[in-house]
Design brief:
360 residues; alpha/beta; Rossmann fold; two-stranded antiparallel sheet; 14 helices; 9 strands; globular
């Protein structure tokens, strides 16, 4: 992966190449931003640049132009571009599948994940990865055995490049035992080793790990094509699919027709857990924007694709119910994260919302 192949991230790319050229390469770096913005692609391009035998520097005064990039031609670059370099190791969330029935690790899915990254041009989403693995209704984790593998890998000298690199994608998916083991590695790094973590939500990463990494914020490259819900950026297609689902739900909760509500819950329960979380964040943000539209006359940024709903529903969200509604969504997200039964979770949330809508 080269920086020139990453759309809309010239500023971040230039910052990374400046760090490398200065010789102040931190042994642990954290790229924070939505996966769709290219955090993984930037991590891979940075690792390739550091290990390139003939990095290219360009004469330019424009902030919109790259100042440097890997050559793309040397043996190290060619192997990095195929994600086949011996000194590059990828760690990512996994779960049990029909072929890996217990104790899954990143090593069990390396070939599949590397091809997946190539196919998605370094901008994979967690939901798409779960679908590729066939675990739509499970939660992927990065586990303690992954940490053991990292420790073993980094204890060895680089095989054919300057740095041995470990990229941890979606670092917020590390469980506690994994995070604690990784922390010890961050505290006592081996020479010529580099750990690059990427994450969308740093709230779920141990503060002690955050304090030992150099954090770089990655902006969204195509904000005009995204709808933002909490810490997740949704594609315009996903937002358009969620909008009628949200509108139907809110109307059912106002009337509280149990037959239609039960059918709606059955439908959302069939979604993958990541999709359920994205929908909850979309709906939660929708209610917040409705509150602002009603209380502060701030125009709705989210389009629910229903003129009557856009005009009338914001009046339902008031200072009397917004805090309770927000907490109800947080509780539901917490439950889905911990593999609670989705039908029970969404039905309980539905009743909580219905009660609050009547308190407007």
């Amino acid at each position: 992966m080269q920086f020139k192949d990453i759309i809309g991230q010239t500023h971040t790319a230039n910052h990374l190449t400046q760090i490398a050229d200065s010789g102040r390469i931190s042994h642990a770096q954290l790229l924070v931003g939505n996966s769709s913005a290219g955090t993984l692609a930037l991590a891979l391009a940075y690792a390739q640049y550091i290990n390139c035998s003939n990095p290219q520097h360009y004469t330019t005064s424009s902030p919109e132009a790259l100042r440097a990039d890997s050559c793309g031609c040397c043996p190290n670059c060619k192997k990095y571009q195929q994600l086949s370099h011996a000194d590059l190791h990828l760690v990512f969330p996994t779960a049990t599948t029909s072929t890996v029935k217990s104790n899954p690790t990143s090593d069990d899915f390396q070939q599949q994940f590397r091809q997946f990254v190539i196919d998605t041009h370094g901008t994979p989403t967690l939901d798409d990865w779960y679908t590729a693995m066939g675990i739509e209704n499970k939660q992927g984790l990065i586990r303690e055995r992954d940490a053991d593998n990292i420790i073993k890998i980094l204890s060895l000298k680089p095989y054919e490049s300057t740095y041995k690199v470990v990229v941890v994608w979606m670092a917020e998916k590390m469980n506690l035992s994994m995070a604690n083991k990784l922390l010890k590695t961050l505290e006592e790094p081996a020479s010529k080793t580099l750990i690059i973590l990427t994450a969308e939500n740093t709230d779920r990463i141990l503060p002690t790990i955050l304090s030992r990494t150099q954090t770089i914020r990655v902006p969204d490259a195509h904000s005009s094509q995204k709808v933002y819900a909490g810490n997740i950026a949704l594609s315009s297609e996903t937002a358009e699919a969620f909008a009628p689902l949200f509108v139907t739900w809110m109307r059912q909760l106002f009337k509280l027709n149990m037959a239609s509500l039960s059918a709606w819950v059955d439908n959302i329960a069939a979604y993958g857990r990541e999709q359920q979380k994205q929908f909850l964040l979309f709906a939660q943000e929708g209610l917040r924007q409705c509150f602002l539209a009603h209380a502060a006359a701030i125009p709705l940024k989210m389009d629910f694709h229903d003129e009557k709903f856009n005009a009338s529903f914001p009046a339902m969200i008031t200072p009397r119910n917004i805090e309770k509604l927000d907490q109800a969504f947080n509780d539901a997200l917490f439950a889905i994260e911990r593999n609670a039964h989705p039908k029970i979770t969404f039905m309980e949330l539905s009743f909580a919302i219905s009660r609050q809508l009547k308190k407007r």
